[in-house]
Amino acid sequence: MAGNAVIVFPTDFSDSSLQALSLARRMAAVLDAELHCIYTVEEPHIYATLDMGPVPIPTADELAATATTRLNNFVSEKLTGLEKPAVGKVLVGRPAEEIVAYASGVNAEMIIMSTHGYSGVRHVILGSTTEAVLRHAECPVLSVRAS
Predict the structure, then answer these.
(1) CA–CA gap between residue 22 and residue 90 (Å, rounded)
(2) Nearby residues of 100 by Cβ (< 8 Å), 6 or more positions away
(3) How far is it, in rounded angstroms, from Cα 45 to Cα 37?
(4) Is 116 exposed, middle or buried (CB count within 10 Å of its CB: 0-12, 13-18, 19+)?
(5) In angstroms, how far is CA 92 from the centroid of its own chain?
(6) Nearest to residue 31, comparing CAs of 86, 102, 83?
(7) CB 98 within 8 A of CB 41
(8) Residue 14 in contact with residue 118, Cβ under 8 Å?
(9) Whether the Cβ atoms of residue 60 and residue 92 lie closer than 8 Å to each other
(10) H helices within the chain, ranges in order?
(11) Rounded to whole angstroms, how far apart are CA atoms 147 and 33?
(12) Do residues 94 and 123 lie in contact, with contact meaning Cβ atoms separated by under 8 Å?
């Protein structure tokens, strides 16, 4: 792994994603890897409602610009002191698909991410990004269950 290993750490800035962060930092040190912290912005959807008239929604580019600022702040606050500087990247699309594609594109050694641990109806309604990443990633995925 001499020098070019990559670990991908997807975040949604939640407390549960932070639980996986310390492990991602340690693995980056052990593997002498570059840590890529990624955040995915979903395309905004317009839902028809009762006659509310036009409802302005932000564009994907506007959401990505805001997310980039937030991610840059996150990286500078939470990912300092690493052997190799962390990389922050905002992606646009469906989170699981974007995480898998990004990890594949950078030949990641591993993806380290948290799971919210939803079950039952919440799982069915909200889906599971972590589960989809586990099923489709080409590299190992370490899933850290939020407590």
Answers:
(1) 21
(2) 132, 133, 136, 137, 138
(3) 25
(4) middle
(5) 11
(6) 83
(7) no
(8) no
(9) yes
(10) 15-30, 60-78, 95-105, 120-126, 129-136
(11) 27
(12) no
Give the CA distances from residue 112 to residues 1, 26, 121, in Å, rounded to whole numbers and listed in that order: 17, 11, 25
Q: Which residues pair with 41 in a beta bridge?
A: 92
pLDDT digits (tens, 9 = 90+) for 13-44: 988 888 899 999 999 999 999 999 999 998 87
Q: Look up residue 82 and give its DSSP letter.
A: -
| 75 token code pair | 């990286």
pLDDT digits (tens, 9 = 90+) for 74-100: 999 999 999 999 999 999 999 999 999
> Can you give the pTM of this predicted structure?
0.85
**Residue 42 in contact with residue 58, Cβ under 8 Å?**
no
What torsion do the CA atoms of 40, 89, 29, 33 make, to the nearest 10 degrees? 110
What is the C-alpha to C-alpha distance for residues 14 and 58, in angstroms, rounded to an integer?
Answer: 22
Note the CATH number of domain 11-44+56-145: 3.40.50.620
Domain spans of the chain? 11-44+56-145
Q: Which tokens belong to 70? A: 């937030």
